[in-house]
User: Fold these one by one.
Assistant:
Number 1:
Amino acid sequence: MNGLARYFRNIFDGISTTLAGMQVTMHYLRSPHTTLQYPKERMPMFERFRGLLHNRIEDCTGCSACARACPVDCISVVTMKAGKDEDLGTTRDGTQKKLHVYEYKIDTLKCLWCGLCTEVCPTHCLTMTSEYEVSSNDRASWELSFAVEEPPPDFDLVATRLKQNRVVNPMAYAGEADPRHLELPAGASRPETAAGVYDYVTHQQAEIAKAAAAAKAAAAAAKKAAEEKAAAEKAAAEQAVTEPPEGERPAAEKPAAEPTTPPADDAAAGPAAEPQAPAETQPPDTEADGGTRG
């Protein structure tokens, strides 16, 4: 294919692919336009749309199945067991309620809109609505509270919340570690509950951090000892260079003898006589010996 034919072929390919891509747009150009005047008009959501959570509290049994199923622990439930003579009524499906529900809260800031909590609800009181407008300028409005039953005056709501939700949400309601959770059960590879897992993992991490800190301290002490030893050896080497060995050191000079004072008896006798020089020897007289002098 020569250059001119390739040129016109590229033009044809460009036009044909553009028309193919515009088919959907051209189809909607011939259809009537639909515009919603939001917020006065709203598009209806489809049947299984997962919107804002809602709990029909009169049918809630306080089983906390939803809190255990939530992957982000955004649901907290506080309940108290009913007395023997108390009748709390039944739900719509005939389930007898045995727990007072004093608190049921959902933190929608954490919610994933996954719908797992609604799937495990035994009475189907927890549902996801078609409400999708959840924007707000107030953080407090993101926490939905559904419980309407007031706890008795002597009921410690905070301590009970900490104790009950620690089982299903140990990260938010940590509290003190249970000593039974610090060791794995016999034959188990992990603790049985979420609180047990949290306690066990936290304890293991603390032990690892403690061992690392001890190793770091030991390494620092060993380094300091090595530095002190090297400094001592360096000082000893410098001293050995400035001072010669014991055998090469010069002998110490003897101090000059002090003049001795003569005894008292010698001083009284006067000065000592000076020694006299020996008399000069005269040559022999040759005449007297019968010789001649020359």
Number 2:
Amino acid sequence: MMYSSGLPILYPVGFLTFFVAYWIEKGMLMKFHRKTSTFNQNLAFDTIPFFRVAILMHLIMSGLMLSSPGILDVKNLKYLDYANVVKDSNIIDEKLYSNDEND
């Protein structure tokens, strides 16, 4: 209602758009979206090999990500402090700025 004084033509345009869309969707529903007889249990059985490949790919990627040498690096603690995940920043400062090179 706020823009009706500036763009009154949009009311009939909007009405026609929704009217035509309603009848087109109704026609599509009645003609093209009917239940087909071509789908059966074979469709489910044919997708099983894809799930096996997806599980294999998931395991490979998980192994690669978790075996990354930098995933548990001490330098990542500074980011966790920045993201407010680690509450005790003394631990982070101790690990990052200690002069012990043997840790």
Number 3:
Amino acid sequence: MFYGVNILAVLAATLSAMVLGFIWYGKFFLGTAWMREAGLREEDIKPADAARGFAVSIVISLVQCILLAWLMKASGQDDILGGLCLGAVTGIGFAAFTLIANDRYEQRSFRLSLINAGYRSLQFTIAGFILGAWS
């Protein structure tokens, strides 16, 4: 336990974000649409850049999962239902809406906003479920 947080649950939730990202942004799901909407081609993505992006994503997801676990503990929403609900609220209410607002200013396509916001919403919802299940 790390300040009342189950670190194994945090690691599992972090891993779930990576697995979800692999599926969500994979060619077999939304990867092709994401690349098109982001204005990228496969040859634009260099292995070193992808590796750095993946490393940053792992660290950010780990921190997000720790913070979500702390928020769940502090709010008393540390069971499966509470985790699921708090994960969805933080994913949609904070992460997704922030992405969409920023994308409007940056004049990105609304489809790109929905792809990225959908991932973050589901990422937090799944993380909350996992954290709540392991509380």
